[in-house]
Amino acid sequence: MFQNIAPKVLDNQYHDPRNPTSNDFVLVFHEQRIVLINHASLPTYELAEANWHFGLEAYTYLLSVDGTAFYLW
What we know:
4-stranded mixed beta sheet
C-alpha cells in the first residue's frame, strides 16, 4: 500500500489552498501519458513554470510526502 512508506510520512488530508514551492512535484499529463524528465522523474514546480508557464491557478494540490507536495496540472 502506498501509505505504508515508513519512515516517510504521507499526508493526503485536505488543506486550504497552498501555493507550490520550487521543489514540489507536478503531475503533468499529455495525450493520456504522464510527463517525466529524462524518462525518470516528475518535473518540479520550478521546472514546470520555467518551461510551460501554466500559471499558479492551474495547479491542484493532491498530497505530500515528508513535506514535499504533489500537484496536478
